[in-house]
Each structure stands twice: as C-alpha cells, then as structure tokens.
TrEMBL record:
Residues 1-21 are annotated as: Disordered. This is Cytochrome oxidase complex assembly protein 1. The keyword Transmembrane helix applies. Residues 1-20 have a biased composition (Basic and acidic residues). Keywords: Membrane, Transmembrane, Transmembrane helix. It comes from Pseudomonas peradeniyensis. The chain crosses the membrane at residues 22-42.
Length: 145
C-alpha cells in the first residue's frame, strides 16, 4: 500500500465520485424555486375572504356592510330573527328602537360563520336582502312586529 493510485482495487482509497459536487445544490435550488412558485400561484388563486366591515343601526332595522357578496341563510324562529352569514367578523351587540320599543341584536361567531340574532319582548318578523353598492355589499335587515 504505497501511494494512493488505483491498482486492481487492492487498497483502501475510495473511488472518485463521477458526479459533480454542485448536483445536490442544483436539486435543492430547483425544489425551493418550485415551492415558491407554487405558493405564489396558490396565493393568487385563493378567493378573498368575506369580511363584515360595518354594522349600522337604521330606522326599522340594521344595515350590514361586507367586502364581498355574503352567503346567508335566515329564519324567523318563534318571534326572533336569526341570520347566518358565511363571513368573518368580530362579535358585536347593540340595541335599536322599533315603534318606540327596544330591540336587542347580537352578532356572534359560530362554526358556520357569523350569526345575527334579533330579539325583542314581543314577536318580531324580519326581511332581508343583499345589494351591491360601490364595490361593497349591503345586507338590509328590516324588522316589523
């Protein structure tokens, strides 16, 4: 075992690696670039979240402003009005007057989105519709006894 030259595999010197030392770096770089491009495409194709921006108390009801058209489902249940919005927003509560009598409303988060509940000491009925105004969506909730 004099020296390190190859002689019929009779010594402990390893064979030279025929691959380039830059090969692992190239593969890692391609993987990182692919991941970044995939994340950018995913970000561009993801729809914008529906967000409740504002709640306004108006005569005989509420106006709820959203950034996108909200999906909603509402019912008049035993004298109360309940509407579920598939949107994000913060919990809120307040009061309004309907024919000089107080009416309480509460907006709270649930698994389905936001739930608007309107309650009074007497049975209520509600009607709602959504319209687009200046790039925003307004859901008008009108109440009557």
């Amino acid at each position: 075992m004099h020296g390190s030259k190859h002689e019929d595999d009779g010594h402990s010197t390893p064979e030279p690696d025929p691959r380039s030392k830059a090969f692992p770096r190239v593969i890692l770089s391609l993987a990182i670039v692919g991941l970044m491009v995939g994340m950018m495409i995913g970000r561009l194709t993801t729809p914008e979240e529906r967000v409740l921006e504002q709640v306004q108390v108006v005569q005989d009801g509420l106006d709820l402003w959203f950034n996108e058209e909200p999906r909603l489902h509402g019912e008049n249940v035993q004298g109360t009005v309940a509407i579920v919005f598939e949107a994000q927003g913060k919990t809120q509560r307040g009061q309004l007057t309907l024919q000089d009598k107080p009416v309480g409303w509460r907006l709270q988060k649930s698994e389905a989105g936001l739930v608007l509940t309107v309650v009074a000491a007497r049975p209520l009925r509600g009607e709602w519709n959504a319209t687009e105004e200046a790039g925003r969506w307004r859901v008008q909730v009108r109440l009557h006894e």
